[in-house]
Amino acid sequence: MSEQTRDELYEKVLNLKDLISYQDGTVASRMIISKNAGSITLFSFDEDEGLSEHTAPYDAVVTILDGQCEIWIAGKTFIMNEGETIIFPANRLHALSAIKPFKMMLVMIRE
């Protein structure tokens, strides 16, 4: 998404889960804000899609906007549903997988 397109989102009431669509058999993403201090990205995951185990150098806040997923952080498992939020600590292994199609907002906070 270009900066100009993101600018079209300013000063409007938004329903975040409506800003990204599900796509069969894949993961889709849409950047909402990208700044030096951090970013906000929306994701949609089709059923059984996910992100493999990895780390990130920054804390991340994930809010489930729709659906249901399973999240793993440093060996702990969490079942997440619409409206729930979890914080991924920087440099900790984490992964996620769609139990059923789900959408999430990822807020990355950079130091």
- Going by CATH, the homologous superfamily would be Jelly Rolls
Counting DSSP E segments of at least 2 residues, the number of strands comes to 7
CATH architecture: Sandwich
Q: SSE string, helix = H, strand = E? A: HEEEEEEE
CATH structural class: Mainly Beta
State the helical fraction: under 10%
Number of domains: 1
Mean pLDDT, all residues = 93
Give a brief description:
With 111 residues, the protein is mainly beta.
Structure overview:
With 111 residues, this protein is mainly β. It has one domain: Sandwich (Jelly Rolls), CATH 2.60.120.10. 5% of the residues lie in helices and 57% in strands. Strands 1, 2, 3, 4, 5, 6 and 7 form a 7-stranded antiparallel sheet that branches. β4 and β5 form a beta hairpin. The chain is globular, with a radius of gyration of 14 Å. The model has no long low-confidence stretch (mean pLDDT 93).
